[in-house]
Specification:
Pfam families: Radical_SAM. The chain has 369 residues and is α/β, with parallel strands linked by helices. It is 34% helix and 18% strand. Helix 1 packs across helix 2 and helix 5 runs parallel beside helix 6. It starts with 25 loop residues before the first helix and ends in a 19-residue tail after the last strand.
């Protein structure tokens, strides 16, 4: 089956919500406030409320004069995301949230609390256009890109939930962000990079999460990987490779028809060289499809040759999706695969999958209303 893939990394603003404070950098915020006839200091005041106090409703910003709150709300705080429902598992420590955007678009995020950290898996698009056949999100297709503010607001809401003790375990702090929810982040490049800057900049310009605690995932848009390397960021790059050979990858990850395994690994090497950061390789292990011992050997050899010690393989037991013919590999096969990759001098571990029973695990997000 022929698959139509996007030819550009940045689609126009079509279908996106009106301008929001979180779409703007510091200079743009000041200009927007002055357009409203307000003094320039209000720009930092609004940003401190949104990013510092995690307040998204101008009516609750008590240091803003009551007379201007409605005007500010209309101009800089359009409705972004409304929670439709929260579903929890793992004793309440994993929470899947279905969001409805202002135009009715549905998307999801997953908040996972661990003993030493709290990680939020966020979406960068509603749906996904990459069409990977083993992924529920990819099979649903792409609805639209998310705006910078819609991406950032997922993080603000989760940070507030952690602070307020809405997640099992009491009050805490959101520490890690992974762009592994719905969508291909590098197909919404400009807005994702802007969102990363808002998420990682200290208040009043952002939420103050460490760049090294942010992971941006991609199925392998090689030119965009190189572009990201030149952004001056210290985020982790995660490449969803899923097989080391082009023949199978063209089926599992259709974008491989445009950028081969060699091109993707070459771009990943450039990322490691430029940023000094280790690259993560995501590999969903699928029974009798990509779990053969020779593929483990090939994967280890190719990664060691391209990246040496600057790579880690995250082996992901395939998460089931309704009606799918795909299934996870048996445990002994998984263990042998790990052993063979390590034998080639490449670090390899099996991801501890969270949220499978509430369809919140990797590849399961489908945003059903």
């Amino acid at each position: 089956m022929a698959v139509s893939l996007p030819l550009v990394f940045d689609a126009p603003r079509r279908g996106l919500p009106p301008r929001h404070l979180a779409d703007l950098d510091s200079d743009e915020r000041r200009a927007a406030v002055q357009e409203l006839g307000l003094p320039a200091f209000r720009a930092d005041q609004l940003a401190r409320q949104y990013y510092g106090r995690l307040e998204g409703d101008p009516e609750k910003m008590t240091d803003l004069p009551a007379a201007v709150r409605e005007k500010v709300g209309a101009a800089l705080f359009p409705p972004l995301l409304t929670p439709v429902r929260h579903i929890a598992c793992d004793g309440g420590e994993t929470r899947r949230t279905l969001w409805k955007a202002g135009d009715g678009t549905l998307l999801e995020s997953v908040l996972m609390r661990y003993p030493d950290r709290a990680t939020l898996c966020i979406s960068s698009q509603a749906g996904c256009g990459m069409a990977c056949p083993f992924c529920a999100t990819g099979q649903a297709g792409l609805t639209r890109n998310l705006s910078t503010a819609e991406i950032v607001d997922q993080v603000r809401a989760a940070a507030a939930a952690m602070r307020d003790g809405d997640v099992s375990g009491g009050p805490g702090r959101l520490s890690n962000i992974v762009f592994m929810g719905m969508g291909e982040p590098l197909a919404n490049y400009k807005r994702v990079v802007a969102a990363v800057r808002r998420i990682t900049s200290p208040a009043p310009d952002g939420l103050g999460i460490s760049q090294r605690a942010v992971t941006v995932s991609t199925v392998g848009l090689a030119p965009a990987i190189r572009k990201l390397a030149d952004e001056g960021l210290s985020v982790t790059l995660a490449v969803s490779l899923h097989t080391p050979d082009d023949e199978l990858r063209a089926t599992l990850v259709p974008v491989n028809n445009r950028w081969s395994v060699a091109e993707v690994l070459d771009a990943a090497t450039y990322y490691a060289d430029t940023t000094g950061r280790r690259v993560s390789i995501e590999y969903a292990l699928i029974r009798d499809i990509n779990d053969q011992p020779w593929r483990a050997d090939m994967l280890g050899k190719k990664l060691h040759k391209a990246l040496g010690s600057r790579v880690h393989v995250n082996l992901i037991p395939l998460n089931p999706t309704p009606g799918s013919k795909w299934d996870a590999s048996p445990k002994p096969v998984e263990e042998e695969f790990v052993r063979r990759v390590i034998a080639q001098g490449v670090s390899c571990t099996v991801r501890n999958t969270r949220g499978q029973e509430i369809a919140a695990a990797c590849g399961q997000l489908a945003a059903e209303g």
